[in-house]
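Hi, here's the filled form for the chain we discussed.

Project: internal
Contact: R.S.
Residues: 86
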Amino acid sequence: MNIKPHNLDSLRKLIRQLQRENKELKSLLDEAGIPYGEASIFQDSPTQSEEYDLDQGSRIETLVVNDRTARRFFMRIFMERLTTPF
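And the returned structure, exactly as it came back:
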C-alpha cells in the first residue's frame, strides 16, 4: 500500500478504504467462526487512555553539565565527523 496522502480528501478516502477492507475481513472472520477483539480507538480521548501521561515532564532526567559531560558530548561530535565521508 502506498501511503503518501497530501490533503484531507485523500486521507478521508484512504480511511474509508481501510474501514471497508476491515469490515470485509471481519465478516470473513465471523463466517469462519474465528473470534477477534473489538477496538474503538476513535471513541476514546487521549486523556482517558492508559498510555497518556498527564505529567510527561516529570520523566525528563536532569543533566548537570560539567567538564566531563561537555568532553563526552564534543567527543561524540568529533568522532562522528571523522567517520562521516564528505
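Let me know if anything looks off before we file it.
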